[in-house]
Design goal:
5-stranded antiparallel beta sheet; alpha/beta; binds calcium ion; Pantoate--beta-alanine Ligase, Chain: A,domain 2
């Protein structure tokens, strides 16, 4: 005989189970769908942010080109050197903002200049790099380590060198680059370098094609002081007040001929060819940090982008 009460109970539990399962399936589908919508929005906002950043880059390229036509020298009082204030990005579908800053890379020490045209060490640049490190309260050993990282051979320099034999013994092991750097952040991998030290050093160094000059009108105070062993903070202060925002008033070579050695004087200039744009674009909740290195040809020539990166230089 069939127990009616019991079978009703089983039917009730089955019905409850089906309701629970379909309910959770529906919730999972709604969640997946919401995630898909959000993912698509983020991708769209990121793409829009990239377009805005590239627009800022084109704008800056025009400013740099005009500056090349209109002026003989480059200094921090020029239009390109002023910070781009936060501008709204505003249309019907998107709300956001863009801000930007352009840095003159010729105002920094180009680490690729550590190696001369013959592939040998450039002693003038090595000693300048050592002085720069000391001025910044960092270990001067990093100059020799950077040279070995960039020079083609696998022979560790003395006393401050390190090549693959050192780096392959680290955990995790890695190898030296052994050629001109494309991105200066590679020097963060030097033996003994930590993030705090590298953050201090980074605003004063760059990685450009070999043979660039340092623009004394835009050089950072530490780079200015590193130009000669006899320059101290007080001399740099007076140089900075002489330079002000409009650059050195007289012939810069005359000003520096009594301050630096002739080999260093030959590496100085008052013009710039390499600039780095940092554009930060915020679209809704998506932020794009966009870096672009631009090369300006001399004599009013075109400005071309030679390197782009996102997030970090
Ligand atoms: Ca200029
Ligand atoms: Ca090497």
């Amino acid at each position: 005989m069939i127990d009616v009460r019991r079978s009703r109970g089983v039917a009730l539990i089955t019905a409850m189970l089906i309701t629970a399962i379909t309910g959770s399936l529906a919730a999972a589908l709604a969640w997946d769908s919401a995630l898909d919508v959000r993912r698509t929005m983020v991708l769209l906002f990121h793409e829009q942010g990239m377009q805005v950043a590239m627009g800022a880059e084109t704008w800056i390229r025009n400013i740099l080109r005009d500056d090349g036509i209109d002026s003989e020298t480059d200094h921090l009082g020029e239009l390109w050197a002023s910070e781009l204030p936060g501008l709204p990005v505003d249309n019907n579908s998107v709300q956001g903002a863009v801000a930007g800053k352009i840095e003159d890379l010729n105002g920094r020490l180009n680490v690729n200049n550590l190696v001369d045209d013959n592939g040998d060490i450039d002693q003038t640049v090595l000693e300048q790099f050592q002085r720069l490190l000391v001025i910044l309260d960092l270990d001067p050993r990093f100059a020799g380590l950077a040279y070995d990282w960039i020079d083609a051979d696998d022979n560790a320099s003395f006393p401050d060198g390190a090549e693959d034999s050192i780096y392959t013994g680290l955990t995790p092991p890695y190898r030296t680059y052994n050629r001109s750097l494309v991105n200066v952040t590679e020097l963060a991998a030097l033996e003994g370098m930590d993030k705090a030290s590298f953050d201090i050093l980074l605003p004063h160094i760059t990685a450009l094609p070999r043979g660039t000059t340092i623009n004394v009108n835009t050089a950072t105070p530490a780079v200015l002081q590193s130009l000669d062993a006899n320059l101290d903070a007080t001399t740099v202060e007076s140089l900075l007040s002489l330079r002000e925002e409009g650059g050195f008033p007289d012939d810069f070579a005359q000003t520096f001929s009594t301050l630096v050695q002739p080999e260093m004087l030959a590496k100085l200039g008052d013009t710039s060819n390499f600039f780095q744009l940092k554009a930060v674009v915020q679209i809704d909740t998506v932020r794009v940090t966009y870096y672009s290195v631009m090369l300006r040809s001399p004599n009013g020539g075109p400005v071309t982008t030679i390197l782009r990166s996102l997030g970090t230089i």
